[in-house]
Specification:
- The chain is an alpha/beta fold.
- The protein has one domain: Rossmann fold, CATH 3.40.50.
- The protein is built from six helices and nine strands; from the N terminus they run ααβαβαβββαββββα.
- The strands form two sheets. Strands 4-3-2-5-6-7 form a six-stranded mixed β-sheet, with helices on both faces. It has a three-stranded antiparallel β-sheet with strand order 1-9-8.
- The longest helix is centred in the N-terminal third of the chain and has 19 residues.
- It is globular, with a radius of gyration of 18 Å.
- The structure holds 1-O-pyrophosphono-5-O-phosphono-alpha-D-ribofuranose (PRP).
- 1-O-pyrophosphono-5-O-phosphono-alpha-D-ribofuranose (PRP) binds next to β2, β3, β5 and α5.
Length: about 200
C-alpha cells in the first residue's frame, strides 16, 4: 500500500475495519464530515421530522441514487409511521458539474395528492434538480411538500430553493462518500470526504 500523508490519517482511522485504505490513500484528500457526525445529525433530523409530521400521512421520496444511504439511516431515525417511494433523475452524467438539465429516469410508484411529501436528497448544488422536482410535485397537489438534504453547497446555487432542512453546509469542494459519487464510485464510504483534484481533473497535480 502507498504511504499516506498526515492529511489522510483520519481517512485511515474512519475505515480501519474496511479493506479499502489503499484506494483511499490514492483518491481522498481528507474527511470533511465523519461517520459519527453524520449519524448524530441524522438522529436530530429524525426527531425534528417526528415533531413536524406527527399524526400526518408522511411519504419520504428519495431522489436516486445519491440519497440511498441517507434515506436508509434517516427512515430508521424517524419514529412515526411513514412510507417511502423512489424517484430517479439524471443531470450530471459523467461530468463533475451540473448541466442544469434534469431528466426523470423513474417516476414515483404512487400518487402524492393529499399526502405530506418530504423529498430526501444527498446534496443541493446548483439547485436545478430540486427546483424542477418542486415544480413537478407541486402540480400533483400534495398536502405539503418539503425537502431534507444531507448536504447543502450554497456557494454553488443558481436557483433559489425554499422549505428545506439541511444536515450540513459544505464548501465548494468535490465531496464524495455516504451515497455521493464520482463516476458512480465512492458511494459506499461511511463518511463525507473530499476527492483529490487529480482524480477528477487528470493533469491538475
Ligand atoms: C446529484 C444529487 C442531486 C443533484 C444536485 O445527483 O444527488 O440530485 O445532483 O445537484 P443540483 O442542485 O446542481 O441539481 P446526480 O445527478 O449526480 O445523480 P446521483 O444522485 O445518481 O449521483
Amino acid at each position: 500500500m502507498a504511504e499516506c500523508s498526515p492529511a489522510v490519517a483520519m481517512v485511515k482511522e474512519e475505515c480501519a475495519d474496511a479493506d479499502v485504505q489503499g484506494q483511499l490513500c490514492q483518491d481522498i484528500e481528507r474527511v470533511l464530515i465523519s461517520a459519527e457526525e453524520i449519524q448524530d445529525r441524522i438522529r436530530e433530523l429524525g426527531r425534528q421530522i417526528d415533531e413536524r409530521y406527527s399524526g400526518k400521512d408522511l411519504l419520504l421520496i428519495a431522489v436516486l441514487k445519491g440519497s440511498i444511504v441517507f434515506i436508509a439511516d434517516l427512515m430508521r431515525a424517524i419514529s412515526i409511521p411513514h412510507e417511502v417511494d423512489f424517484l430517479a433523475t439524471s443531470s450530471y452524467g459523467a461530468s463533475s458539474t451540473s448541466s442544469g438539465v434534469v431528466r426523470i429516469m423513474k417516476d414515483l410508484n404512487e400518487p402524492i395528492e393529499g399526502r405530506h411529501a418530504l423529498l430526501v436528497e444527498d446534496i443541493i448544488d446548483s439547485g436545478h434538480t430540486l427546483a424542477y422536482l418542486t415544480r413537478l410535485f407541486s402540480a400533483r397537489n400534495p398536502a405539503s411538500l418539503e425537502i431534507v438534504t444531507l448536504l447543502d453547497k450554497p456557494s454553488r446555487r443558481e436557483v433559489d430553493i425554499e422549505l428545506f432542512w439541511t444536515g450540513f453546509s459544505v464548501p465548494n469542494e468535490f465531496v464524495i462518500g455516504y451515497g455521493l459519487d464520482f463516476n458512480q464510485k465512492y458511494r459506499n464510504l461511511p463518511y463525507i470526504g473530499v476527492l483529490k483534484p487529480e482524480v477528477y481533473e487528470p493533469g491538475s497535480e
